[in-house]
Amino acid sequence: MGDRVILHIDCNSFYASVEQVFRPELAEVPMAVCGDPEGRHGIILAKNEKAKAYGIATAETIWQAKRKCPELVLVPPRMDEYRRFSRRINAIYADYTDMVEPFSLDESWLDVTGSQQLFGDGKTIADTIRRRVREEIGVTVSVGVSFNKVFAKLGSDYKKPDATTVFLREDVPQKVWPLPVTSLLFVGRSAAATLEKSHIYTIGDLARADRELLVRLLGKLGDTLCDYARGLDDSPVAKLGDSREIKSVGNGMTFRRDLASEEDIRLGLHVLCDSVAHRLRRSGLRGWTVQVTIKDTNLKSITRQTTLPRATDLSSEMLEAAMALTLANRPAAIRMLTVTVSGLTDDTTGEQTSLFAEEQLPDLDNRRRLEHTLDRLRDRYGWSSVRPGATLQNNLGIDESAPRGADDET
Ligand SMILES: [Mg+2]
Fold it and tell me: Where are the domains of the chain?
């Protein structure tokens, strides 16, 4: 059987590009979309080409960016607008295949193996889509074409903006293996640091490394990365709309020591809610119901759930509900906690504002901005780049528990 043809499409400077569609004059000046433009601790979420020329980088603070470019124009993010653009862009992808899997608002994988007779080879389809998104939406995209999802993603990152990069199986040793391990999916800063200590710097080093060594160094992630580097990723591209089949999203954790204090419980729930919220946002879903399963030291478990006043994808809202449920049903000591959100909806237009007092809205908006900022940082630098400060000192075993993939989605 021949190789699959997988595309990974990444919108270039997505938030900034959308803002430029509405205000083309912004393309003429250095501009960045950032959380909390009023405060100097706000973070750069996206920047345009002119800002890039000043060396302005995603995730740096406004204060750092302004030092490089004092006349930088700052624009607050409009998530609902970005979601709307994201839907329109994915609808273009869907003209070429029904296997379209969004990875985030501005990135999707496409499996076009079966589309080539109709639309040409992978590179031709990539170039066609690139032109259409530019002309019909006003946003440029970079496309990676390869035989698996991981190398396709590498390709979309390889050359941008507005470019197509093809990595065929025979290109891997010359083109893929010299790339740094940090460019590989799921290699965050801490994993990279661990690998570096074993003199593994490139994807090629990783591919040649002993699998058992990698597992010893990084656990399950080591096994995964070994597959990735060797081009063995065979995960399928989901069909568009499959996310609607997801009934619930949950995550559970057995702690290194039992949770006794309220502070411990809050910390444990915080980490779980963070990962659940992140995955909901990535799937473009919100949920009405928060459920907590509490296992005590005798492994007896209780499950309790509550319905929220509105569907949410925010960790902070889940945490309040989960905390109340847990404290109301609290055993003397807790061994394990699971947080699950169900009653999922993909209707993220409108905030059902009628249920909420006006004065609560700015706060909600700020929370949403903050959590989206965290998503971007984590997508870029790995899950553990952002975590509650308290997890650094705790001995609960909360550490590199990155919520990867769709393990517990049911
Ligand atoms: Mg992008």
Answer: 14-79, 177-229, 246-392
Rounded Cα distance, 44 and 59, in Å: 5
Question: For residues 17 and 35, is the Cβ–Cβ distance under 8 A?
Answer: no
Asked whether the CA dihedral 143, 144, 147, 151 is positive or negative, the reply is negative
- Ligand 1: centre distance to CA 173 (Å): 26
Third-level CATH fold of 246-392: Dna Ligase; domain 1 (3.30.1490)
- What is the per-residue pLDDT across 210-242, written as a single tens digit (0 to 9) for each? 999 999 999 889 999 999 999 999 999 988 876
110: left (phi over 0), alpha (psi -120 to 50) or beta: beta
Q: State the distance from the centre of ligand 1 to the C-alpha of 176, rounded, in angstroms.
A: 20
The answer to whether residue 107 is catalytic is: yes
Q: Which residue has the tokens 């568009």?
A: 240
Please check whether residue 248 is in contact with residue 340, taking contact to mean a CB–CB distance below 8 angstroms. Answer: yes
Write a three-state SS string for 267-286. HHHHHHHHHHHHHHHHCCCE
What residues form DSSP beta bridges with 289?
Answer: 307, 342
**Number of alpha helices (DSSP H) and beta strands (DSSP E) in the chain:** 14, 12
Up-side HSE of residue 70: CA atoms within 13 Å toward CB?
Answer: 0
The top-level CATH class assigned to 177-229 is mainly alpha
Q: Which CATH number fits domain 14-79: 3.40.190.10, 3.65.10.10, 3.40.1170.60, 3.40.50.10230?
A: 3.40.1170.60
How far does residue 71's CA lie from ligand 1's centre (Å)? 24
Ligand 1 center from residue 312 Cα (angstroms): 24
Q: What pLDDT is attached to residue 281?
A: 85
262-282 vs 315-328: helix axis angle to the nearest 10? 140
Query: What separation in Å is there between the alpha carbon of 73 and the centre of ligand 1?
Result: 20
Q: How far is the CA of 106 from the centre of ligand 1 (A)?
A: 5
Q: What is the pTM of this model?
A: 0.67
Among 113-117, 134-138, 315-319, 346-350, where is mean pLDDT lowest? Answer: 346-350
Q: Which of 28, 38, 49, 107 is catalytic?
A: 107
Label residue 311 by pLDDT band (50, 70, 90).
confident
> What are the angstrom distances between the C-alpha of 27 and each of 19, 69, 88, 92, 139?
9, 15, 22, 24, 12
